[in-house]
Design brief:
The chain is an alpha/beta fold and 293 residues long. It has helices at residues 19-22, 28-41, 65-78, 96-105, 139-151, 163-175, 201-206, 224-233, 257-270, 278-285, and strands at residues 5-6, 8-11, 45-48, 83-86, 109-113, 117-119, 133-135, 155-160, 183-188, 213-218, 237-240, 274-275. 36% of the residues lie in helices and 17% in strands. α2 (28-41) packs parallel to α3 and α2 runs parallel beside α9. It starts with a strand and ends in an 8-residue tail after the last helix.
C-alpha cells in the first residue's frame, strides 16, 4: 500500500449539540446528505452518533435499534463503499444499548473509550459551563465492549483523552483484551484532557506499541489545524467534522461537514499526501474483508 495516503474520518454530528443552534445532522436524510458531502470531499470513514428522531428531541442521543438502522441504511444507500465507525460512548454501567447495536449492525469499526475522564469546562467568569461530570470507562466496561467487538470482528478505535489512557491501550493489548494492532485516537483539545498542541503528539506516539495505527481528534477552533498538519507530517491519520469543531482555518463558521473535510484534505495535500479511498483505508488499517449481504 502506498503510505503516502492519509485516512480522513468525518465525525458527522456528536452527542448533544443542539441542531437548532449549530445545524448538525439528525434525521436519516440529513445524516446521509452530510455523509455524501464528507465522502465527496475526501473522507473514507464516518464516525456516527445517533440522535433522537422525536420532534424537538434532536439534541439527545438514542440507541433505539430501528432508528440507528434507518440512519445507517440511508448512508449506505447513498455511499455503499464508506466505512462506518459506530460510537459507543455512554455514561454509567449500562452498555446494553450500544452493545445491542454493535451486535445487530456489526460495523467495520467502533469507538471504544479507553479510560475515564472528569469532563469539565469553564465559562469566562470561572463558573462551570455544565455540572462537573465523570465520563466513566473502567476496565470492566472497556472489556464488555471489546468482547462483543471481538465476537463480531469489529475493529475497536480506542479514544484516548490523556497520556495514561494511551499507555493503557498497550496494557489491554498485552493482557489479551483485543487482538491485532491497536487503533488509537488521540482526543486533544478537551479542556480537562490533553491540549491540542502539536509538540505533544510525538510524545504520545512514542508511548504507543509497535504497529499502532493512530489519528488525531482535534477539538477546538483555530489551534486545531496546526495539530492536524503535524499528525499528517508524522504519517498519522486525521478526523474532523461538526462533532469536533464548528470553525474553518479562516475562523469562519463551517456551514456543514463537507467544508470541514475539504479544509482538512487541503492540509493533507499541502503535507505531500493524498486522502485514502475507502478501499485504501481498509488496507492501511487492516480492517476485516467487506461482508456481502
Amino acid at each position: 500500500m502506498n503510505q503516502q495516503k492519509t485516512v480522513v474520518t468525518c465525525a458527522l454530528t456528536g452527542v448533544l449539540t443542539d441542531p437548532a443552534v449549530h445545524h448538525v445532522p439528525v434525521t436519516p436524510k440529513e445524516m446521509a446528505d452530510h455523509a455524501v458531502q464528507a465522502y465527496d470531499a475526501g473522507a473514507s470513514i464516518l464516525h456516527c452518533h445517533f440522535r433522537n428522531q422525536a420532534p424537538g428531541m434532536g439534541h439527545l442521543p438514542t440507541w433505539e435499534p430501528d432508528t440507528v438502522g434507518e440512519i445507517l441504511a440511508a448512508i449506505k444507500d447513498r455511499i455503499p463503499e464508506i466505512i462506518i465507525c459506530m460510537s459507543t460512548g455512554v455514561v454509567g454501567a449500562d452498555i446494553s444499548g450500544p452493545l445491542a447495536c454493535l451486535e445487530r449492525f456489526q460495523p467495520e469499526m467502533a469507538a471504544c473509550n479507553a479510560g475515564s475522564l472528569n469532563y469539565l469546562k469553564l465559562r469566562s467568569d470561572g463558573s462551570w459551563a455544565w455540572p462537573p461530570a465523570l465520563f466513566d470507562n473502567p476496565v470492566e466496561k472497556v472489556k464488555g465492549f471489546l468482547d462483543v467487538m471481538t465476537a463480531h470482528d469489529i475493529t475497536p478505535e480506542f479514544e484516548c483523552f490523556d497520556t495514561g489512557i494511551v499507555r493503557s491501550v498497550g496494557l489491554f493489548q498485552k493482557n489479551g483484551m483485543f487482538q491485532g494492532s491497536a487503533h488509537i485516537s488521540c482526543v486533544m483539545g478537551v479542556a480537562s484532557g490533553m491540549p491540542a498542541r502539536p509538540d505533544l503528539l510525538p510524545i504520545l506516539v512514542d508511548e504507543m506499541t509497535a504497529g499502532t495505527h493512530y489519528q488525531v481528534i482535534a477539538v477546538g477552533r483555530g489551534e486545531i489545524w496546526d495539530l492536524h498538519r503535524k499528525c499528517v507530517e508524522m504519517g498519522g491519520n486525521v478526523r474532523t467534522g461538526l462533532e469536533d469543531t464548528f470553525y474553518l482555518p479562516s475562523g469562519d463558521k463551517a456551514r456543514n461537514n463537507g467544508v470541514l473535510v475539504e479544509a482538512l484534505v487541503g492540509i493533507v495535500r499541502e503535507a505531500g499526501r493524498e486522502p485514502a479511498s475507502p478501499a485504501e483505508a481498509r488496507e492501511i488499517l487492516d480492517l476485516r474483508p467487506v461482508r456481502t449481504q
